[in-house]
Write a structure and sequence with these properties.
Largest sheet: 3 strands, mixed
Shape: elongated
Strand content: 5-15%
Organism: Muntiacus muntjak
Helix content: 40-55%
Distance between the termini: 53 Å
Protein name: Reverse transcriptase domain-containing protein
Radius of gyration: 24 Å
Strand order of the largest sheet: 1-2-3
Number of helices: 8
């Protein structure tokens, strides 16, 4: 019975990222933590590992605060969702406004997940706009070789608000929540 309790405690501690302190004979536990710091930090209860970047709740946090890699990753995930919707978007039974709603409901949330914390620079802004136009061109089955302007594509789709505008709206809602 005692052996089973010890195994359960060991399993629970490892599942909850608690590592037993083997330097002491008592049954103290310490938490293994990753932090970003400019120099080494030592403590007798916390094992600290200094790292340049790490994943926190699905987002990559870097020491310099750059999130361009995170934006690229989300745009790739959105592209994957859009290609998975290809068979639905090819259907002639579904109207264009319904297809636009599908893209807004299934693709854009994947791209916008966590965008409240992003610092969007000019290059990322261009990538986001290019991704949005790629979505609309894919939806309309307009190849890149066709000489159609972006304005004509947007006029035909009439999305209402751009992807960048939706991201800004989420940022402002998040800021209003914090204030």
């Amino acid at each position: 019975m005692k052996c089973q309790l010890v195994r359960k405690q060991q399993k629970w501690t490892w599942n909850n990222r608690l590592v037993p302190n083997r330097k002491r004979s008592t049954s103290r536990l310490y938490i293994k933590t990753k932090i970003m710091a400019s120099g080494p930090i030592t403590s007798w209860q916390i094992d600290v590992v200094t790292v340049a970047d790490f994943i926190f709740w699905g987002s990559k946090i870097t020491s310099d605060g750059d999130c361009s890699h995170e934006i690229k990753r989300h745009l790739l995930l959105g592209r994957k969702v859009m290609t998975n919707l290809d068979s639905i978007l090819k259907s002639k039974d579904i109207t264009l406004p319904t297809k636009v709603c599908l893209v807004k409901a299934m693709v854009f949330p994947v791209v916008m997940y966590g965008c409240e914390s992003w610092t969007i620079k000019k290059a990322e802004r261009r990538r986001i706009d290019a991704f949005e136009l790629w979505c609309w061109r894919t939806l309309l089955r307009v190849p890149w070789t066709a000489r159609r302007s972006n304005q004509s594509i947007l006029k035909e789709v009439s999305p209402g608000c751009s992807l960048e505008g939706l991201m800004l709206k989420l940022k402002l809602q998040y800021l209003g929540h914090l204030m």
